[in-house]
Amino acid sequence: MDAKTERKERETAPAEKTRAQPRSDRRPPGDEKRVENERADDKRAQDRQANDSPSDTNKPGLVRRYPYIAAIVAILIVLVIAAVVIWWLNARHYEWTDDAFIDARTVTVGAEIAGRITDVAVTDNQPVEAGAVLLRIDDSDYQASLKQAEAGVAAARADIANVEAQTQAQNAKIDAAGKQVAQAQAALEFAKSEDQRNRELLAKGTATQQQAQQAASTLRQDQAALDAANANAEAAKSQMAVLQAQGKSAEAKLRQAEAVENQAKTTLTRTTITAPVAGRATSITAAKGTYAQPGQVLMMFVPNDVWVKANFKETQLDLMRPGQPVDIAIDAYPEKTFHGRVDSVQAGSGTAFSLLPAENATGNFVKVVQRVPVKIVFDQPPGVYLGPGMSVVPTVKVR
Fold first, then answer.
1. Pick from 185, 254, 260: nearest CA to 226
2. Pick from 339, 166, 159: which is nearest to 243 by CA?
3. Fold for domain 140-267?
4. What is the pTM of this model?
5. Which residues are CB-neighbours of 127 under 8 A, at least 6 positions away?
6. CATH class for the domain made up of 98-105+304-397
7. Could you give the strand order of the β-sheet that contains 279-282, starting from the edge strand earlier in sequence?
8. Beta partners for 309?
9. Cα–Cα distance between 375 and 357 in angstroms, integer?
10. Is 96 within 8 Å of 295 (Cβ atoms)?
11. What is the pLDDT of residues 247-297, one digit of tens each?
12. Which of 118, 133, 144, 394 has the maximal Cβ count within 10 Å?
């Protein structure tokens, strides 16, 4: 049944119902006006329905009206859902942060000695190789100190040579004294035998009293000579001990003089300040003619050995391990991607090692996700200039 037939039936139904009613069922004349009003209301309602129903019934849906657009929208929705799923499946293998910077062990270059600066060999941000001269300090005073120290070393060595010569002479004296002792000992033995023989001859009457007395006197003289020889030998040995002590003292003075000489040489080398490693000189405050004091900072030095310090959230560290590959994007070089690896994870959050660590033992504690520094090193030298503090975005593959 179509819409027109249905509408016609609705329009004719009230009239047929009225004609079908017997005359005995008609309402009194007082109710005719009310009935006419009701019929008029029904008629207006039917007219509105007749005006609305055909358009609603015959109006096609959006999908039927625009099938190509609907197909495109459906395809786009499917593609978006697929892209989101693929992104999620891929992104869960990576952790990244934009709270990361280039870091390096910046070296403070300062004077170790006092003196006037005679030459500044570099300019700000100049790249230099390891061992290159950065600046020089007047070395005239330190040259004089070195010469004085060298003279002290020469004097100490001369003292040692003198003691060695005296020692050799004293050894000769000791040998001579020993020979004198042996000679005196032999003479004493002969004198003893002569004295004994003269005593026996005197008892037999074959020797005179004078001969016996002469033998006894000779014995006493030889005994005294032996004692004197022994004393001389002991004195020579004692003098040798003195010379040995003098030799040790001279050697100690030589070592002291050599230490002074080495110190003078070291101080002289400090008048020339060189680059400890390859890098760049920056923040130069030294100037030719300036008088430098020990410990005074003259410039800063940034080595070429740099790395990335990435502050990851503690919730990102579950699967992060040393050795995992990292893609590094540097803001200064947006068209390049650098590669590296995780070197280490700091044993504690960044706030734990700050100058004033946070005190959480208070009544106003608010839990905040902490960040932990992670050191990332480059697989190959970057080949471009990188300085501490430059912003980077590292992406770590954790799965």
1. 185
2. 166
3. Helix Hairpins (1.10.287)
4. 0.59
5. 278, 279, 280
6. mainly beta
7. 107-110, 297-303, 279-282, 126-128
8. 101, 375
9. 21
10. no
11. 888 899 999 999 999 999 999 999 999 998 899 999 999 999 999 999 999
12. 394
Measured CA to CA, the distance from residue 343 to residue 307 in angstroms comes to 10
257-290 in b/e form (b: 16+ CB < 10 A) is bbebbeebeebbebbebebeeebbbbebebeeeb
CATH classification for the domain delimited by 107-137+271-300, as one of 3.40.50.2300, 2.40.50.100, 3.40.50.300, 3.50.50.60: 2.40.50.100
- In terms of C-beta density within 10 A (0-12 exposed, 13-18 middle, 19 or more buried), how is residue 94 classed? middle
Q: Where are the chain's structural domains?
A: 3-59, 98-105+304-397, 107-137+271-300, 140-267
CA angle 145, 151, 152 (to 5 degrees): 90
Of 42, 34, 33, whose CA–CA distance to 15 is shortest?
42
Among 356, 288, 347, 297, residue whose Cα is nearest residue 322: 347
Question: Which three-class secondary structure state does DSSP give residue 281?
Answer: strand
Q: What is the pLDDT of residues 223-238, one digit of tens each?
A: 787 777 777 777 777 7
Taking alpha carbons only, the member of 321, 319, 317, 326 closest to residue 370 is 317
pLDDT digits (tens, 9 = 90+) for 375-389: 999 998 888 889 899
1 pLDDT exceeds 50? no
Both tokens of residue 291? Answer: 């008088």
CA nearest neighbour of 259 among 168, 152, 172: 152
Q: How far apart are CA 364 and CA 387, in angstroms?
A: 39
